[in-house]
UniProtKB/TrEMBL annotation:
It comes from the Eukaryota. Keywords: Transferase. This is Alkyl transferase. Its EC number is 2.5.1.-.
Length: 235
């Protein structure tokens, strides 16, 4: 069983169009599916679930759609995350990543998600909003360079472990995804967890995200369990 599953929730807009619904209705359905699916993954023993909710590149979408998404996420964080344990058989800690320079002001503070669950260490939910894998790596490099400049670390001490401690996923005991799922049939990472996914198993089902139900997630886990993970070595 994977310890960390990352999900690019792709296809909500296409699902809405296919079903004669508005884009906002599709996004809301995708948001509900995200929470339900997270609880399902937690229930089978997965420790960390990461959800790619909004990429830095998504700012290029129409302004009204972006504004709606930001408001929807704010509502999601305020109303759903604090009460999410009612869906689950276990407790978890939520971390919401947001780029503080470009995200709307009401989405820049991530204390809300942490405060509700700061004493709970069993499971982790990471929600990536305004996320860029390249920026994640760049920011980590700048932080390490600043620490070396100030004499806090030596350049020769910088290794993969120190790098991972500067990345967004440092909050999890298992920062690197074992399995990355991207729904809707698109077969690319799209700037999500570039460092963390070096040896991640990539799964690309054709189903649109709001349709990704229990049968689909069990199929994904079954597919993963058949993989031979060699991490560059041989079997």
């Amino acid at each position: 069983m994977p310890k960390h599953v990352a999900i690019t929730m792709d296809g909500s807009r296409r699902w809405a169009k296919k079903n004669g619904l508005t884009i906002s209705e599709g996004q809301e359905a995708g948001c509900r599916r995200a929470l339900e699916m997270t609880m399902d993954f937690f229930s089978v023993g997965i420790n960390t679930v990461s959800l790619f909710g909004f990429s830095t590149e998504n700012w290029r979408r129409p302004e009204d759609e972006v504004n709606y998404l930001m408001n929807m996420y704010e509502t999601f964080f305020k109303r759903e995350i604090p009460h999410a344990p009612r869906y689950a058989t276990t407790q978890f800690q939520a971390f919401v990543y947001r780029n503080r320079k470009t995200s709307p002001r009401h989405l820049r503070c991530d204390a809300r998600g942490r405060r509700s669950y700061k004493e709970l260490r069993r499971k982790h939910l990471i929600i990536a909003i305004d996320y860029s894998g390249r920026f994640d790596i760049l920011r980590a490099c700048k932080s390490l360079a600043e620490k070396a400049k100030n004499g806090l670390i030596r350049v020769e001490d910088i290794d993969e472990k120190l790098m991972e401690n500067e990345l967004t996923t440092k909050c999890s005991e298992f920062p690197n995804p074992d399995l990355l799922i991207r729904t809707s049939g698109e077969q690319r990472i799209s700037n999500f967890f570039l460092w963390q996914s070096a040896y991640t198993e990539l799964y690309f089902p054709n189903v649109l995200w709001p349709e990704f139900g229990k049968a689909e997630y069990l199929e994904a886990l079954t597919w993963y369990q058949k993989r031979q993970r060699r991490f560059g070595g041989s079997v």
